[in-house]
Amino acid sequence: MALILFLFLFQLIRKKKLKEQYSLLWFLVVAVVFLLAIWDRPLTWISETTGIQLPSNTLFLLAILFLSGMALHFSLLVSRLTDQSTMLAQKLAQLDRDLRKQQEQQDEESSHGRSHEGASDARD
Asked: What pLDDT, in 10s, does the model give residues 19-35?
């Protein structure tokens, strides 16, 4: 299973669907899963030390803790990106407003320039 997950992660990175910064964490998870698959003594030791009856229950507990940590991390990331999107939308609206004002001023100046040219042509 660890080998399949490793190949899957490699494909996601190759196709640029997973950024390298997140892939390192997932490769660490694959390495831990692989180590526990071939050497279960650490998991048994953790189970005995914490009083958990079965090593598989310890594995599920560790997986739940890991996934909870990831959910918290991504919640913080989404919150930060939402704030940045709001700020960027506000800046874009301000730039759009300034651009429209500048365009209106240029239109007024060009229309005043044309009316003065028309008056001087009529006098000639």
From this structure: 888 888 889 888 988 88
